[in-house]
Amino acid sequence: MSNLFDQRNNQPNPEGYNPRPVNNYVKAQASGGEKFFYGIFAVFTLGIYPIKLKNRLNAMQNQVNTAASTIDTQVAKRTNIIISLTEAASSYLKHEREIFEEVAKFRGMMGQMQNAASATESAKIGNELNNGLTGFMSRLIAVSENYPDLKADKVVRDLMEQSVYLENEIAAARRLYNTYVNEFNTSITTFPTNVKAAKMNLSTLELFQAKASDYERPSTKLN
């Protein structure tokens, strides 16, 4: 039996090894022996066990979907906070045209995320939006060093703190999402749940993973 997930390409990496999640889809499968013993167990439980398994798998998928929705909600909240932050700081930053151009872009991306045709598309846009917000906050903090009155503004300080808090909430929501995905993926590849999962034509779900650009040091300069 081979590994479920194989990250090796048989080429040594002189820069060391940086683990990344493998998001290949793996369909639930069951051997003949597993199906046989599953059938016996189903008969002994008068067909109740397969029903319980189906309900459990459906509940796990709903858990994953809810966790993904929570990430989108937190990203939308953070976008609104940063828009409010920029508006509160507008009198100090009236000469920083690039800041307002970026905020306009974030507004557009938030609309795209909320109107996305699928959960996958929404998650992709949300991830790009949150990464953009993080880089924007770094640059905004750097710019604020040139405006002592801006740094001293209580409303601006409070909004910055809220943005940092929501960034941590998004990270926590992503960890919870990955936990639920791992639980589901483990279940559908483990006997006896794999037999029912194969009948339901289920496949592993995708883990959240950072883009390659996320491993680069963020710029603190405005465009």
Q: What's the SSE blueprint?
A:
Blueprint: H1 32-44, H2 48-88, H3 97-114, H4 119-144, H5 148-152, H6 154-188, H7 193-199
Helix pairs in contact: 2-3, 2-4, 2-6, 3-4
Provide an overview of this structure:
Keywords: Membrane, Transmembrane, Transmembrane helix. Residues 1-13 have a biased composition (Polar residues). It holds the Pfam family LemA. InterPro entries: LemA-like_dom_sf, MamQ_LemA. It comes from Mycoplasmopsis gallinarum. This protein is an all-alpha fold and 223 residues long. The chain has one domain: LemA-like domain (de novo design (two linked rop proteins)). It contains 7 helices and no strands. It has helices at residues 32-44, 48-88, 97-114, 119-144, 148-152, 154-188, 193-199. Helix 2 runs antiparallel to helix 6 and helix 3 runs antiparallel to helix 4 (119-144). The longest helix has 41 residues, at 48-88. 24% of the residues are buried. Residues 213-223 have low confidence and may be disordered.
